[in-house]
Description:
Mean pLDDT: 93
Strand content: 5-15%
Oligomer: single chain
Largest sheet: 8 strands, parallel, barrel
Structural class: alpha/beta
Amino acid sequence: xxxxxxxxxxxxxxxxxxxxxxxxxxxxxxxxxxxxxxxxxxxxxxxxxxxxxxxxxxxxxxxxxxxxxxxxxxxxxxxxxxxxxxxxxxxxxxxxxxxxxxxxxxxxxxxxxxxxxxxxxxxxxxxxxxxxxxxxxxxxxxxxxxxxxxxxxxxxxxxxxxxxxxxxxxxxxxxxxxxxxxxxxxxxxxxxxxxxxxxxxxxxxxxxxxxxxxxxxxxxxxxxxxxxxxxxxxxxxxxxxxxxxxxxxxxxxxxxxxxxxxxxxxxxxxxxxxxxxxxxxxxxxxxxxxxxxxxxxxxxxxxxxxxxxxxx
Length: 312
């Protein structure tokens, strides 16, 4: 899977921001044609996005465009113009307000038609589905199973909180008066479970107070602890913190690789279990270690410890 520790939102109508994003260490950059672009600027923004994808240096980053939602008058032209103009330099389309599986299926079919017409590899462009209302959360299992192109489920907290009539004006923070537990826990777990059940990634939504990096880090640690793969970032100041939160520590990464080494050696020797120090390792240990090791490898981490020679 692609690394999505940090997904940087960039207005598709702002060439200066787009140019700056190319030098930032976010894993993914999505050029936004939806909420960040005024209705009067949407058509011109498509041209700006196409030029940026074709001419920009996006080396090492996943390139995504967020189109307008499927019920708007802009959606189909967003997809057609962006994919026809820059499909070879695009990794995925983000579909906002995915409330029903048919929304994703519509996008899948449209992408297939464009790819065939443009002689692009059919199925290469992925889809990220954004869950932004109560209906989408209710239909999330069907959405998660809706298309082989689907790569990730993404929380859209602002619209979702509004659809629930949640008493808050700060996206990402607990609503006033909610003092017991976490008001977002069920939502986060619902998205995560649906994603994992269908082999998808799960991405947490943005934290709007972009200058408060400590608060961003605190909120990011919540979803990272549950198992989310990453989080939206709205400002360059959030990228370093997000990359750190959604990467394993060096000790955990090294230990995960050592567990995999020890278990692999045990299987080669005809044993179904092994030991690492004083700890017993079995198939369940291997699965847990694979998760941590995969995150470390995707983050470009290097091992600092190797297995001790046999007999030591």
